[in-house]
Batch of 3 targets.
Target 1
Amino acid sequence: MNGIELMVLEHTYIKRMLNVMRSASYGVLKGEPIVRKDFDQMIDFVRNYADNHHHGKEERMLFNRMMEELGPVAEKLVRHGMLVEHDLGRLFIRQLEEALDRVEAGEDEARLDVIGNAIGYTDLLTRHIDKEDNVVYPFSQNNLSAGTRQIIDTECEAFEQETEQSGVQNKYINLLEELEARYRTGVNRHD
Ligand SMILES: [Fe+2]
Ligand SMILES: [Fe+2]
C-alpha cells in the first residue's frame, strides 16, 4: 500500500467515526442523556487519529510537497482549501468540548451547541474527505514527480511503523469499534 492508498484507507475509519458522532448527536436531539465519556472518546479519536495522525501526515508529507512542486493551483487548493478546513475542524471540536462542559455545568441549552458543533464537524469532514479522495489526491498522483512520490511513500511507511510500535492505530480502531457497537443504530445503548 502506498502513502496515498493508506490515507484513503484512513478516511474510511474517520468516516465511520463521523457516523458514530451523527448517531450520538441524534440521541442528544431526542433528549437522551449525554454520555460524556463517549463524547470524550470521539474527541480523542478526532484529535489524535483524524487530526494528529492523518492530517499531520497530509500536512507534513503530502501538502507541503504539492505546494513546493505544483505551483499556484496546488497552493490555492491546499492553503486556501484543505488547510483552512483542517483548522475549521479543530475549531468545531474545541467548541464541542466547551458545549459539553456547559451541559455538565447544568446549562441545558448547550445541548444545542453539542449537536451544532458535532454535525458541523461531520459535514465539514465528509466534504473534505470527498474532495481529497476525488480531487486532491489524484491531482497529486498525476502531477508530482516519481521521485517525490517515492519520498512520500517512504516517509509514510516509516511513520506508520513508528506509530504502530506505540500502538496508535490499534488503540483508535478498537475505540472506533467500541463506539460503533453503542451508536451504530442511532440508539444509545450505553446505559
Ligand atoms: Fe485533510
Ligand atoms: Fe484526509
Target 2
Amino acid sequence: MSSREKRPKLAVKLAGVELKNPVMPASGTFGSGKEYEAYLDLEKLGMIVTKGVADRPWKGNPTPRVAETHGGMLNSVGLQNPGIEHFLREDLPFLQSRNTKTMVNIAGRSIEEYVRVVTALQRQPVDFLELNISCPNIKEGGVAFGTDADMAYQVTKKVKAAATQPLIVKLSPNVTDIGAVARACEAGGADGISLINTLLGMKIDIKTRRPLLANTFGGLSGPAIKPVALRMVYQAAKEVKIPIIGIGGISTWEDALEFILAGAAAVQVGTANFRNPRVMLQIIEGLENYLRTENIDGIEELIGAGHELQEGIQC
Ligand SMILES: Cc1cc2nc3c(=O)[nH]c(=O)nc-3n(C[C@H](O)[C@H](O)[C@H](O)COP(=O)(O)O)c2cc1C
C-alpha cells in the first residue's frame, strides 16, 4: 500500500486523552447509550456522553415539554434524571463494558450539588466530566451559572478541585460575550469547553393563544441553531488555549467539518440523532472520505484551520 492509500487518521487528543475519532453524541439526546445500541455499534463512536446526572433524582418539568420548530425543536424537559446512585448502579457498568470513552454530563442547582456528583465519580471508570453550567443557580435567584462570567469561574474552580477526571465545561449561548465566559472557565481550571447548549426560545399555540410549552420557554436545538453555534465556537477559539468541543445543529459531516475548521477538536451531535440514529456513523465516514480525497493525513491538521486566512487580512 502506498502512503497515498494509507488510512487517514481520525483520532484526536482531548485534554491528553486519545479518542478514536472526534464524533460523539450531545448530552440528553442519546440516553446512556443503551437505547441506541440496536441501531449502531457504540464502539465506533469517539466517546459516549451521558444525559445530565444530578446528586439525586430530578422529576423534570410538566408536559407538554417538546415542540417542533422550523429546522429544529424546543424542549423544556428540565434535566429529568434518576440521580447519581442509579447512574452508578444501572448505567455505568454498561458503559464500562463498551470499548469507547465515557463522558458524564453533570447537572446541579448549586455548587455543592455539582461537587457531590463529581465526588461520587472520583474513583469510577469515567474518562471525562462535562459540567452543564446552563442550570439555574438557586442561590442566585435561578440565574443560570453560565450566563455570568464570575459565576462560571467560581463553579469551574470548585468543581475542578473535586474532580479526578478532565473537566469540560459546557457553555450556555444565552450570553452577549461568549469569549468572556470561555476565558473565565479556562481561568477556573477547565481542561476544555464544549458549546453550545440550547438557545432560549418559545412557541405560542394559536388555537389556545397560550405558550405551547407548559414551562413557557424552552431550549432551541437542531439545524436552525448551527450558524449561531459555529460563530460562538469561532469566537471562543480566539479566546482560549484549552480544547473545544463544538455543538449545535450538526447533522452532516460537512457541518462537523465547519466546526473543526472554526477551532473545535471534537464535535457533538444532538437533535440529529432523533431523526436518524445512525447519523454519527455517517458523519465519521464522511470525514474519513474527505481526508482521503483531499490527501490529508489526519483530522487534527484541520482544527482551527478556518482562522488562518482571516488572520492575514488587515482592515
Ligand atoms: C431533549 C434534549 C435534552 C437535553 N439534555 C441535556 C442535558 O441533560 N445536559 C446538557 O448539557 N445538555 C442537554 N441538551 C443540550 C444538547 O446536549 C445540545 O447542547 C443542544 O441540543 C444543541 O445541539 P443539537 O442542535 O445538535 O441538538 C439537551 C438537548 C435536548 C434536545
Target 3
Amino acid sequence: MNDVTQRSPLADPAWHYLDKIALEDLSHDDWVMLEGQRSAYLARHQAAQALRLLSAGEHDPCFGYQVNNYRHCLQSATMVLRDGLPEEDVVVALLHDVGFIACPLLHGDFAATLLGAYVSERNHWMLRHHATFQNLHSPHMPGVNQHERERWSGHPHFDWTAEFVARYDQAAADPSYRCEPLQTFVPMVERIFSRKPQDRRSINQDKP
Ligand SMILES: [Fe+2]
Ligand SMILES: [Fe+2]
C-alpha cells in the first residue's frame, strides 16, 4: 500500500498500488505485482460486473414489446432453468441480450465476447448468431431475409441455436410469466466466470 489510497476515493487498502502512471514506466516487478493481483480481483468483481451490465436496464421502459430487455433475459433464463438444461445454458440465456440496448446491431457478438472464454463452442456460436436465427420468426419484419440462417445449414451448432431461439428467445416476452428473481442466477453466473478461461481471441468473426 502506498499513498494512492489517500489520493483516490476508489483505492482499497486491500490492494497494492503502483506509484507510476504510464505503462512504459512499469518495471518487471510492477507487472508481476499487477498480474498477481489480477486473478483475485476478477474472482471478486467479474461476475458481479457482468450482472450489473444486465441489471442496469432493470427499470428502463420498453419501446414497444410488452416487457423490457431485463425481463426478457430473466424469462429466457427461467424457462431454460425450468426445462432442466445445464447451468451453462441458463447463464447464456440470462446474458444473451445483455448488449441489446447499448450495442443493438452486434449484440450477439457482444454476448459472445463477454462469455466466450467461459462457455462451450456450442454456446459461443449460438450467442454470435442467435439474432440471425430470429429472422425465421419475424417473417413480416421489413428488409429481413427470413431464411438467412440457412447459410449455416448443417453446422454442428445450427440445431441448438434454432432451438434456443424458438423455445427460449422469440417468445420470451410475456408480462404474465413468473420469472425467477435475478438472485436465483447469481451463483450460476459466478460459477461460469470462475472457470478457467479459454483463449478465443483468434476466432475470425467471418468464419461460419
Ligand atoms: Fe438477441
Ligand atoms: Fe433475446
